[in-house]
Amino acid sequence: MKIVFVIDQVYLHGGIERVLSIKANYFASQPDYEIYILTTEQKDKSPCYEFSAKIVFQDLAINYNRQKSYFHPVNLLKLPKHIGKTRSVIKKIRPDVVVVCSHSMDTYFIPFINRKIPKVKEFHYSKFIEEDKRKNPSLFKRIFFKFTDYVEKKYDKLVILNRDEAGYYKSNNTVVIPNPLTFSPKSVSKLTNKVAITAGRVAHVKGYDILIDIWKIINKTEKKWQLHIYGDGDSNYVHKLQDKINEYGLQDTLILKGSTNTIEEEMLNSSIFVMTSHNECFPLVLLEAQACGLPIVSFDCPHGPRNIINEENGVLVPHYDNETFAEKLINLIQNKEELKKKGKNAKENSSKYELEIIMNLWSNMFQSLQVN
C-alpha cells in the first residue's frame, strides 16, 4: 500500500512532526507499505527527527510567507502553483491514500484533486478555539466557517485525537485515533529528585506565564524544589517569561531550559509533570511523562488532559484556579506514598497507547478505505 503524508515541513521541532516521524517509520518498516512525505517548504533543511531511509521525500518548494495569513494576496498568488505541483506529484506516485497532517494550505484543496484517491485529514488542535468565533462571527468568518465545514465533509476520514472533539464537526466522517507513545523507557523515574518538569512549544497557549505565578506560591513552602521548562519559541515571549521569573526572584528554582533532544532522560530525572495550557487536544508530552512514571498535575483545559489523566494517575485542577493548582501540587510533593502510587498508575495507563496498538487503528482505517 502506498501512503502519501502531506505536511508543510519536517525541520522544526513540533508535535505534528514528531508523530509523523513515528507513523511514517512504523509503516516504512512494514513489508506491504511504501511511504512518501510531501512537503511545501523544507528549504533544503534536514529533518529534525529521524526518518527511515526507506521513506521517499519530495519538497514542492512553494515557500509561503509564514509571517502572513495563508489567505493574504502574497500567499494566494502561490496557490495555483501549489495545486498544480501537488496534483502532478500525486498522479505520478499513484498512492492508495493521501493523509494531510498539518493545517496548512493543502487542507483546503486536497479533497478536490485526484478525486479517486481516498483522502484523510488529521487534526492536531482543539476546535474549541473556534467556539466563540462561531457564535458571533464576522461576515468573513461566517463564509470561512461554511467553507471549512464543506471541505471537511469532502474528506473520506477526519482523524481526531479524542472523543470530546467529535461534537465540533459538522460531518459524520470522524474517527478517533489518539497519538502513540513516542518511546517506552526500560526504567521509570525514582521520584526522588526535587524537580517538577514541563515541556512543549514556548507559546502563550501553554500558559507558562500562569505557571510562573503558581510556582511563586509553591516556592514559599517548597524552596528546595525546582521547576524546569523545556522547549523553545518566540524570543520575545521567552524574554517576557524570563523577566517575570526575575521579577519574582525565582531564578534559582524556575529555569527555562530551552529545547532538548533528551526529553526522556530529563523526565526520568524529574518527579512530577505539570501543565497549565489554555487548551490542548491530545498532548503527546503527557503520554511521554506517564511512560516515565511521572504523576501529572494539570489544568482541566479543553480537551486533552481529561482524556489521559484521572485521579488514579494524576490530578486535574479546575481551569485557571491557580491556588488549587498550587495546593494540589504541594500535597503531592509532601505525600511520598501518593506520589509513588500515582506514578505507578501513570506508567500502567501509558501502555494503552503503545505504538503497535495505535498503529493498528491507522492500518485498519487504511484498509477500510480500500474496501470502500
TrEMBL record:
This protein's name: Glycosyltransferase family 4 protein
Residues spanning the membrane: none
GO molecular function, one term: glycosyltransferase activity
Coiled-coil residue spans: 322-356
EC number: 2.4.-.-
Top-rank taxon: Bacteria
Signal sequence region: none
Keywords: Coiled coil, Glycosyltransferase, Transferase
Domain Glycosyl transferase family: 185-348
